[in-house]
Amino acid sequence: MYKLLIALAGALTLSGCQLTQLVKDAGPLDTQLKKQHALAALSINEEFDSYLSDRGRAQLLSQLAKQLKQPVADELSRVDPITHATWSLKIAAVNFQAFQLKRAGKEEINTESELMFIDLPYVTRRKVKLYAEPSKQSRELGNLEKHDIVNVLAQSPDESWYLIERGTQLLGYVRHTAVTPSILKRDFLNSRPYELKVDTDNDLTRDGYVLPLHDIFGLTQCRQVEIHFAHQSRQAQRSLNLCQKTPDIWFINPLHDTPEA
After folding, report:
1. Mean per-residue pLDDT for 221-236?
2. pLDDT, the chain, mean
3. Alpha carbon 3 to its chain's center
4. How confident is the model at residue 8, as a pLDDT?
5. What is the CA radius of gyration of the chain?
6. E strands along the chain, which residues?
7. How far apart are CA 257 and CA 37, in angstroms?
8. Residue ranges of the alpha helices (H) in the chain?
9. 3 state SS of 22
10. CA 159 vs CA 45, 200, 202: distances in Å
11. β-bridge pairing 213-231 and 86-91
12. pLDDT average, residue stretch 216-223
């Protein structure tokens, strides 16, 4: 299960990127993390409102989204055309962060596969077969109907297979061509964090028995971003850890948010 982590650690060392610590699933702390994320987003919105106009906010978010697609470190600054406040961004190089989640699901589902987390809703294009492993030679677990809405929790490193769930219950693996994303782009203030936590005292049942909990280990790309605002004698600064779901969707990792200094 840790081959991907070891391989990436070696590759990232050579490329100058970093691999940060493993964030483990701590059981029923989901609500606490959601509150931390909501408070972080609210606080950043308040800072935006205090220094930026709508045009300035749109410019900042657009520039940040553009720079997040570039893996190297970068810095830039602009002046808001309405408020004349100055904002600047300092974006660190890509690092990989490891997450460990728990999900209930049928015992046959193999979660030892190497994975990169996504955690976004997708819609089935047609009737789809579910597999116990990311392989057509693995055991079939049933079917999804056309236009079913599911959550793609993670993908294989070659992006050819998705591990899917509904709610917090694992369903199995599907080919990536069998589903299409329902969300293509979203700024980091409106993108939720991973549903890391699920109560280990789960009561999800199927066919008369309690579904076992699976440990799921995977990686995601993250960037440390510093935002600085200045207007006359006022200034504010915040350091964010943004993690990627797709190249166009990043979220605030509330475990690493640093409030205004």
Report:
1. 95
2. 84
3. 21
4. 46
5. 20
6. 18-23, 74-79, 86-91, 95-105, 116-124, 128-131, 140-144, 149-155, 161-166, 169-175, 179-181, 205-206, 209-210, 213-231, 234-246, 249-252
7. 9
8. 3-15, 30-51, 54-68
9. strand
10. 34, 29, 30
11. antiparallel
12. 91
**pLDDT tens profile 36-93:** 888 888 999 999 999 999 999 999 999 999 999 999 999 999 999 999 999 999 999 9
Give tens-digit pLDDT for 114-145: 899 999 999 999 999 999 999 999 999 999 99
- Greatest alpha-carbon pair distance for the chain in Å reads 66
Residue entry with tokens 């979660």: 111
129, 146, 173 from 136: Cα distances, Å: 9, 19, 10
CA–CA gap between residue 100 and residue 244 (Å, rounded): 16
Tokens describing residue 126: 């047609």
Contact 114, 7 (CB under 8 A): no
Task: Quote the DSSP letter at residue 212.
Answer: P
Structure tokens at 30: 């989901």
pTM above 0.70, yes or no: yes
Cα separation, 206 vs 77, whole angstroms: 55
Please count the other Cβ atoms lying within 10 Å of the Cβ belonging to residue 240: 23
Q: What are phi and psi of 37, to 5 degrees?
A: -65, -45
229: Cα separation from own chain's centroid:
26
**Range 77-111 burial, b when 16+ CB lie within 10 A, else e:** eeebeebebbbebbbbbbbbbbbebbbbbbeebbb
Taking the C-alpha atoms of residue 4 and residue 220, their distance in angstroms, rounded to an integer, is 12
User: For the segment 16-38, what is each residue's pLDDT rounded down to a tens digit?
Assistant: 444 444 555 444 445 677 788 88
